[in-house]
Design brief:
By secondary structure, this protein is α/β, with parallel strands linked by helices. It has two domains: about 120 residues, Response regulator (Rossmann fold), CATH 3.40.50; about 90 residues, Arc Repressor Mutant, subunit A (Orthogonal Bundle), CATH 1.10.10. A five-stranded parallel sheet has the order 2-1-3-4-5, sandwiched between helices. The radius of gyration is 24 Å and the shape is elongated.
Length: about 220
């Protein structure tokens, strides 16, 4: 879903029509009031945001989007008046992903949107690891199981990350000690077993993804 915040109804309708023809879902809003109301219901893939709006302007909206964690990473393309270099610079400094100078062509708009979505999609790769009901948000160091956040110790987190990065690979206890603990760690391999046990417990049913390979070590997945 793409949100178009534009107070000119004729331009807004044309934007939505073009985006729909291009294969996107789109919804338009004439001002910040309608926009924020929609944001409470669903977060879009991208926002086309006009700077000159009645009431709250686009720069103010962008500041709020970037200061609120759930929307901080949503791609935003600003629409600025032709020759308004100051607005473009301010928008980019505040975290806008791109800008369009009015009047702009509809095909240029679609091209810019596709480019930003490709770029942001690529930059997000590696941010999340997922397996079954388990999701790791690497940027926030958070683990979710079935959408519920669980608390892990640093070593439990590092163990799970290693497993989820190498699904199906069998690790010996010595390899896990070497990878997760310091290379010079002199503790017993029983340390690994204890951490695996607590990790399984915290993951609940999803902990069944950690398999014991008798005489060898452990495999995830």
């Amino acid at each position: 879903m793409i949100y178009c915040v534009e107070d000119d109804s004729s331009i807004r309708d044309l934007m939505i029509y073009t985006l729909t023809i291009a294969g996107f879902e789109a919804e338009g809003f004439p001002d910040s009031i309608a926009f924020w109301k929609a944001m409470q219901t669903a977060t879009p893939e991208l926002i086309l945001l006009d700077i000159m709006l009645p009431g709250e302007d686009g720069i103010t909206i962008l500041k709020k989007l970037r200061s609120f964690a759930p929307t901080a990473a949503v791609p935003v393309i600003m629409a600025t008046a032709k020759g308004s270099e100051y607005d473009r610079v301010i928008g980019l400094d505040l975290g806008a992903d791109d800008y369009l100078c009015k009047p702009f062509g509809m095909m240029e708009m679609v091209s810019r949107i596709k480019a930003v979505l490709r770029r942001t999609s690529f930059s997000d790769q590696g941010t999340f690891l997922s397996y079954g009901a388990i999701t790791m948000d690497l940027s926030r160091h958070v683990v979710l199981v079935g959408g519920r956040e669980i608390a892990l110790t640093l070593k439990e987190y590092d163990l799970l990350k290693l497993f989820m990065e190498h699904v199906g690979l069998v690790f010996t206890r010595d390899q896990l000690l070497s990878s997760v603990w310091d290379q010079d760690y002199t503790g017993e391999t029983r340390t690994v077993d204890v951490h695996i046990g607590t990790l399984r417990t915290k993951l609940g049913e999803s902990g069944e993804a950690i398999h014991t390979v008798r005489g060898v070590g452990y495999r995830f997945g």
